[in-house]
Structures are given as C-alpha cells and as structure tokens.
Amino acid sequence: MRDEETHQFLKLKPVQATLSSLKMLDVGKWPIFSLCSEEELQLIRQACVFGSAGNEVLYTTVNDEIFVLGTNCCGCLGLGDVQSTIEPRRLDSLSGKKIACLSYGSGPHIVLATTEGEVFTWGHNAYSQLGNGTTNHGLVPCHISTNLSNKQVIEVACGSYHSLVLTSDGEVFAWGYNNSGQVGSGSTINQPIPRRVTGCLQNKVVVTIACGQMCCMAVVDSGEVYVWGYNGNGQLGLGNSGNQPTPCRVAALQGIRVQRVACGYAHTLVLTDEGQVYAWGANSYGQLGTGNKSNQSYPTPVTVEKDRIIEIAACHSTHTSAAKTQGGHVYMWGQCRGQSVILPHLTHFSCTDDVFACFATPAVTWRLLSVEPDDHLTVAESLKREFDNPDTADLKFLVDGKYIYAHKVLLKIRCEHFRSSLEDNEDDIVEMSEFSYPVYRAFLEYLYTDSISLSPEEAVGLLDLATFYRENRLKKLCQQTIKQGICEENAIALLSAAVKYDAQDLEEFCFRFCINHLTVVTQTSGFAEMDHDLLKNFISKASRVGAFKN
C-alpha cells in the first residue's frame, strides 16, 4: 500500500493512536499456546498457564467449554488419567460450570471457584492441599463442600502445597501443608479439610487474599493487612524472620489503607488506596524494586513513577514483580529472563500479564486471564470487507458479463493507472474486455487486501495485467504463486509466460525446474508445442549448463 498517499488523503500524522486499554490480551505470548491453532486461540475467553515449566494450561471458550493440555503432572489436567496431551482435550467433568477464579500450586494442584461459589480441586495432593480429607492425587475435579456447604467462595489462592479461599461474607478458609503455620491454625499439623482461619480475623471482614510459597496474606475492609506462615525471608513484613502460626497484623502499615496484596515466591507487594506500592521479603533478584538485593522484613516504599499505580502483580512460583500505572505504563522488576532487575523498569507492554508471559521463569500466569472479544476492525480489515460490496460502491466493472463493485477513491489511492483513468471519469460503469473475470477480480481484490488467491494458471493472466499496469509488487506476488504451482506438465507454459512478461526471476526458476526434470518435461505436450524461438533459446541455454552431456 502507498502509505505516503494514504496519509495525505486521510490528513493524518503518523502517530500511534491505539489506546493500550483497548488492546486485547494476546494469549499466544505464552509458549504453551503455540500448540493451539489460530482458530482455537480466537475462541479463548479465560486461561491459566501453570506448571513447573509453564507446561500446563486450562482455558475456557466462547461456548463455556473448558479445555486443558500439557504434561498432566500428577493428573493436574483433571482428565482422569496422567497421560500428557499435546492437543487440547475438553474437561467434561466441569461441563456447564463457569469459572469465577482459579489458582494453582507447585505440585501442581488446582483450586477453582465457579460463578455460583462452588469449589473444585484436583491434582497433586501429597499434603492434603485438595481439601478432600485424603492424600491421594486427584485425577478429576472434586467438589469441596466440607465446612463450605453454605458458603459462596469469591476468591481462591494457592501456595506451593496449601490452599486458601475467601467467602462472600468475608471469611477465610485454609487447608493443606502446614509445616510453617501457613494454614493459620496455630499448629504445624497438615490440615486435610477446609478450616476457617480465625484468631485476629475472627471478627474481621476480609476483602482479598494472596499466598506466597508457604505464607498467607489477607486484607480486611479497613485496609489492614494480616499475615501468617513462613517468614524466613521476612515476607510477612513483621520486622523479624520468625514463622507465624496464626494471623498477625502488619503494624508497620499503621494508618495506610491497603487495597490489594500480591505474593511472589518469598516476597510481598501491597497497593494502597493512594496508588503507592510497598514491598518486603526476599530480594536476591531485586524483586522488591528497592535498588539493591537486600531482604527487607518491614514494608518498604517502591518508587515506580509519579503516576498513580492501579495494579500490582506477583506469583508464588516466580521472583518477578510488575505494576501498571493509571497512565497505562507497565513496569517490571526482579528475576526477568535470568537477569536481576533491581529497580522498576518501564516496558512496552500494555498489561502486567505480558510481563509474566515474556519475562517470568517459568512463563506462567499470575492470575486467571480474561480475554474480551475484540470487535473493533482495523482500517485494513474494514477495507477488505468493502471489496465487491454493492451497498457502498460507487463504481462497477463489467467483465465477461459480470459486475465487480469497487470504490473510486480507493482505486485512485492504490493504483497509478486508476489515478489517471478515473480523474475526470464520472461514469459509474467501466467495461473491461482485455482480461478475464477471475483475473480482473483478483486484481481489484488485491488493491483492497494486498494479497492474491489464484491458481498458477490464472496467476499468469494476472502477471500479464500487473505488467501492463506496472504494478511491480503484484508482479512479484504472481511470480510467487506461479512458483508454488509449477509441475512437469505446466513448466513449459509457465516458462513461456515468464519470458513473455519479462519476469526474469520467474524465468530463471522455471528454467531450472525444467532442467532438473528434463526427461519428463521433454515428453509433455507443452514441450512438443513449444514456440520455435523459445525452444531454440531453451536448448541453447540448457546446453551451456551441461544438460545434454549424457
């Protein structure tokens, strides 16, 4: 397309006018999705990538069907077996269920809440992290109702081997591995079924939760943060490194209202109501964003930029941190593709999810992805739709008794021939007899789409047109199409066309093909009917390259 002319016509400056907030999330950035076809990717509406190497995925489609694929470690795909699958398989056991939220552990195990508030778990269960009262791996989703039968779960979170859920009435339940007090029960005995976390949270209304590798966080409606579990790296923010078997308030945040909390493997991020970020815990990769690699046991402010922060992101299986500003800028720090980024680094991404797809190790999702359908058409897509549309066209070509509908202004922008021929032409019908209907239609469609779709034989006719109209790019496309369709039967005809239309690259290609398949080509009708001058030149050139030595 003639970009300069298009800009002049539309009176636009070449500036980026796409709002990052309108960009649709591209799930294809996660390597595991390369196993899916483009058609399958277009149907995805929710997705979660998990596993020790980002090698497991669960996703839902526009039809509310749930599919899984991956290595299926410990039956974490929920298919009833432990067989890996390189192709998406439908998870029929959850048919009819709509996913509200989902989290995963290191085993991995899965905890899923439906839009109706039900909880289902499956996968690794050596530490009772499925909450079904056993330590047997769960090969299919199991409905967890013990102590939750009259509760509606609205949020779920998983540590490496423990699970946490939040109900609609602000209560928190935990179960699973408890070697460091991460279940919050006051002991270090594993918890086989959901148990309400009480203590300091007894009369509090919790609004959001998060889990690190072996710790838990809960934010209550007053903006206070309560923590419990493993604290060897200071990830509880209590000013020490001692484990905490029951919930304890982070006193250092006194007077600060926290809205969100996110946990990495051994570090913690919180976002305040004023858009400020605080971090604490492990910092060997710079994941606190403080400019050094020293652990912090107290909340430490993270300076991102003057703009307000509206989102923070971390995941218990990585040492990566990310944040998004009100202006749409996305920053990352911590372990990023093997590098230690010790200060927030401005990226070109439009969402924090992309940070984990492209820079986290492993490439997992930090939350359940939500992919909104993008109904917006680009300029190019809109033009493609308008080709041969009688409702909007102001010009029609009559070729072989059939009409092809077009738009004068687009033809003049895209083609030098039409710019001159349509300049003072007020007719709305143009009769065309020099070219066939398939060829001329393909030419006009090319002006709308920048592509052609023709058989090699018809592409020869389009090559003739491209030569006549001096459309060099179209000429190259025709040559590519012809090359892809060459065979022994049509090789001489295509060689003849290449010579006729001075397509030197195509001529050389056809000649080499004929030489490489000389015995068969010389027995075809095309060779027998070959133009005398062309035959003479062919034999002479073939002799020079030694084709007749034997």
CATH fold-level name of the domain at 380-545: Potassium Channel Kv1.1, Chain A
Structural class of the helix and strand makeup? alpha+beta
CATH-wise, what's the superfamily of the domain at 380-545? Potassium Channel Kv1.1, Chain A
Proportion of strand residues: 25-35%
| Main sheet strand line-up | 4-3-2-1-25
- Rg value: 32 Å
Report mean pLDDT, rounded to a whole number.
Answer: 91
CATH architecture designation of the domain at 380-545: 2-Layer Sandwich
Please count the helical segments: 14
Form type: elongated
Distance between the termini: 50 Å
How many β-strands, per DSSP?
28
**Major sheet characteristics:** 5 strands, antiparallel
Can you put this structure into words, describing what you see?
By secondary structure, this protein is α+β, with helices and mostly antiparallel strands. The chain has a domain at 380-545: Potassium Channel Kv1.1, Chain A (2-Layer Sandwich). The chain contains 14 helices and 28 strands. Strands 4-3-2-1-25 form a five-stranded antiparallel beta sheet. Strands 5-6-7-8 form a four-stranded antiparallel beta sheet, with no helix packed on it. It has a four-stranded antiparallel beta sheet with strand order 9-10-11-12, with no helix packed on it. Helix 8 (456-469) runs antiparallel to helix 9 (472-484) and helix 9 (472-484) runs parallel beside helix 11 (504-516). The longest helix is centred in the C-terminal third of the chain and has 14 residues, at 456-469. It is elongated and about 100 Å long.
